[in-house]
Amino acid sequence: MTAEMVAPAWMHQQITAEVYESWSEEQCAGIEIVDGMVVVGPSASKRHNRLARLLANALDAAAGPDWNADTDFDVRLQDVPLTNRRPDVIVYRADTIDITPTRPEHVLLVAEVVSPGSETTDRIVKVDQYAKAGIGFYWRIEQAATGAPLVYTYLLDPATRTYREGDVFAGTLKITVPFAAEIDLGQI
């Protein structure tokens, strides 16, 4: 094993919120923390990044002044053990833009674009984590090499902190809660 192949020591120990907050933005980019452990995911493809960006732009335009939509920043699901996820698209309350870390109570919706290497995490693990954190809506976007992507929607049952399956969209995505909009998935 060469020196380049040895993972840094911090990848083998639990990370606390205090330690994570001492890291630079550059150190935090591209990683998630799950139960205090650093998780490095595969790099996203250009298609993945474009889909996430276009979806965020469409949601941001539809959301009005009360909500912002963005891509790729931490949502702190729990402090101990530390769990930070970086959803591909996040819709959050506009009045919390300067509050760090972003907490589940600031977030209306998270969307994950499924890529090779993230299938199980996006289809099973994150669904459970976001629901337990109390985030109202979860969308899973399945990419298509040709044609519009499929958007699987999930709605939180607050009593059980689990998601129930909503509609599946291809073509036009119709949003009604808490703002109304239509997004042409063929344009994304």
The gist of it:
This protein has 188 residues and is an alpha+beta fold.
Secondary structure layout:
Blueprint: H1 17-22, H2 25-28, E1 31-34, E2 37-40, H3 46-63, E3 67-70, E4 75-78, E5 83-85, E6 89-93, E7 107-114, H4 119-133, E8 137-142, E9 150-157, E10 162-169, E11 172-175, E12 181-184
Provide a descriptive summary of the structure in words.
The protein has four helices and twelve strands, in the order ααββαβββββαβββββ. The chain has about 190 residues and is of the alpha+beta class. It has a six-stranded mixed sheet with strand order 3-6-7-8-9-10, sandwiched between helices.
Distance, first to last CA = 43 Å
- Strand proportion: 25-35%
Tell the overall outline.
globular
Radius of gyration: 17 Å
Q: Compute the average pLDDT.
A: 87
Report the count of strand segments.
12
Q: Which residues sit in consecutive blocks of at least 5 with pLDDT less than 50?
A: none
**Elements, N to C (H/E):** HHEEHEEEEEHEEEEE
Major sheet attributes: 6 strands, mixed
Q: What spatial order of strands do you see in the largest sheet?
A: 3-6-7-8-9-10
Structural class comes to alpha+beta
Helical segment tally? 4
Helix content: 10-25%
